[in-house]
Specification:
This protein is an alpha/beta fold. Helices cover 43% and strands 19% of the residues. The protein folds into 2 domains: 9-126 and 307-324, Nucleotidyltransferase, domain 5 (2-Layer Sandwich); 135-302, 2-Layer Sandwich (Nucleotidyltransferase, domain 5), CATH 3.30.420. α4 crosses α12 and α7 (188-196) packs across α9. The longest helix is centred in the last third of the chain and has 27 residues, at 243-269. The mean pLDDT is 92. This is tRNA N6-adenosine threonylcarbamoyltransferase.
Length: 345
């Protein structure tokens, strides 16, 4: 494992603007969150049934200075006292990312501070370090969000081996599409989760796709199509659609696949620690299912609080700390990389 210590305390001011949350945070020594300010645009994008990139970018421009000021004030710190400035530079919406990157570069240049570029997904994984003081690499992590479903081995801080990924829709995308189809609205994940709590998860038997050439890959397009076909068939025949039952059955199919593959990977690769990360990691059925399966398999299970599952800057500050003490610095040519792959620099 690489050297992960620093001389004296390290305070990171982190900025996150990859999608529809404008966020800033101050993180001390990679584990202590001194402030975590999030300005959400969910209400705005709900009108359109999803995130509108142009609107998201404009809102980031409006909010970013206020959010940073609030984060510094809440942490009771000045910009001069900050050690380094970190920002998400990919993946995400290019216009939204550019707002954060431009802001971070301007602040770092004006204040004479080092600049650290952070991979958004690395941030999600790092959210697990905030409340779990005993968690250190290596471990297996399932990353589930609107745009990503990855199964990775976290070999060290900032060092990942991807062993499984989705071949089509990410889990979060499937939640959004199913929620829209049954009239639950946006954002789909929390709406389906809530509806499912009043339903029977065994009411409808939906398929669990297996990807032949890799036991750790995922595919959710077939499941999504099966749900849409069920809805269309019910409408054509005049059958009643019991939304809680449909939501619970769909969610159960997603969770079962995510849990079984993650636990299988931990056993086969010989790791005794499992973590989850990303927006879908706040799903109650996934958390319960993973907890139960890990207990049965004798694995330690870690997960962040819901506020650290969705997009936030605290997780970016944590990831940036380990990047910073590992010697990583970004130049003034740092740019937004909307399709940045995990492990790329």
């Amino acid at each position: 494992m690489k050297k992960h210590t620093a001389d004296g305390d390290v305070y990171i001011l982190a900025i996150e603007s990859s999608c529809d949350e404008t966020a800033a945070a101050v993180v001390k020594n990679g584990r202590q969150v001194l402030s975590n300010v999030i300005s959400s645009q969910i209400a705005l994008h709900t009108l359109y049934g999803g995130v509108v990139p142009e609107i998201a970018s404009r809102k980031h421009i409006e909010k970013i200075n206020q959010v940073i000021e609030s984060a510094l004030k809440e942490a009771d710190m000045t910009l001069e006292e900050i050690t380094a400035i970190a920002v998400t530079y990919g993946p995400g919406l290019v216009g939204a990312l550019l707002v954060g990157v431009a802001e971070a570069k301007a602040l770092a240049y004006a204040a004479g501070k080092p600049l650290v570029g952070v991979h958004h997904i690395e941030g999600h994984v790092s959210a697990n370090f905030i409340e779990n003081e005993d968690l250190e690499p290596p471990f297996v992590c399932l990353i589930v969000s609107g745009g990503h479903t990855h199964l990775v081995i976290v070999k060290d801080y900032g060092e990942f081996e991807i062993i499984g990924r989705t071949r089509d829709d990410a889990a979060g995308e499937a939640f959004d599409k199913v929620a829209r189809a049954v009239g639950l609205g946006y954002p789909g994940g929390p709406k389906v989760d809530k509806a499912a709590q009043g339903g029977n998860k065994h009411a409808i038997e939906f398929p669990r796709a297996k990807v032949g050439d890799n036991p750790y890959d995922f595919s959710f397009s077939g499941l999504k199509s099966a749900v849409l076909n069920y809805i269309n068939h019910a409408k054509m025949t005049g059958e009643e659609i019991v939304v809680p039952d449909l939501a619970a059955s769909f969610q159960n199919a997603v969770v079962e696949v995510l849990v079984t593959r993650t636990v299988l990977a931990a056993k086969e690769y010989g790791y005794d620690k499992v973590a989850i990360a990303g927006g879908v990691a706040s799903n109650t059925a996934l958390r319960e299912g993973m907890k139960e399966a890990c207990q049965k398999a004798g694995l330690k299970f870690y997960y962040p609080s819901p506020v650290y599952c969705t997009d936030n800057a605290a997780m970016i500050g944590v990831a940036a700390y380990y990047e910073y003490i590992g010697g990583s610095r970004a130049g003034w040519d740092l740019n937004a990389v909307p399709n940045l792959k995990l492990g790329e620099r």
